[in-house]
Amino acid sequence: MGHSEGGRSFISRLVPEDRCHLNGLALRDGKAAYVTMVSQSDTFDGWRDGRRDQGLVMDIASNEIICSGLSMPHSPRWHEGKLYLHNSGTGEFGYVDFATGAFVPITFCPGYLRGLAFMGNVAVVGMSLPRDNKTFSGLALDDALEQRKMNPRAGIYFIDLATGAVMHTINFEGIVTELYDVAILPGVRQPAALAPASAEVRRTLKVDASNF
């Protein structure tokens, strides 16, 4: 992947470097359809210069840019006829208007957005504390938090897609400061996160439901 409008490649060669920071993939009808990246940089770490407003969404099949001018876009997901994603550098969850190529914000969330899933008409949004380094400094998210007099949070937001209202929140404190993704586990009543080296892991059994 490394094409711009008209199918012209902006990646001059394939090397083990982080140039455009491609960070998200959306499936549509079971096939890879859209990707997000921070910029169209063709130099090592060049994407960092485009963090504030050079992010984009690209159609894999046509190599066309379908949305641009984003700030560190992340977690594209196709759901019920729309392409949803995070404009993480601004703290906004929204979708792409294919007719105009614009990003349409639905809800502002007080954190760096990463991870997205759906339960019917409810979006489940992962939210992290911005890291204290140059990657996350100077983003519009900082200004938005200051204007709203809000502190950044790590947690999960449940958002009504019809109204944009935040229906419920789960806030994380202590050592948990970042989420990389969220997932829905249908039918699970008591989920638990277990550390790989914990005593609980050694006492936990996984049984295939097909055996019953």
Automatic annotation (TrEMBL):
Xref: Pfam families: DUF4915 (PF16261)
Ranges where the Conserved hypothetical protein CHP03032 domain occurs: 9-194
InterPro entries found in the cross-reference section: CHP03032
Protein name: TIGR03032 family protein
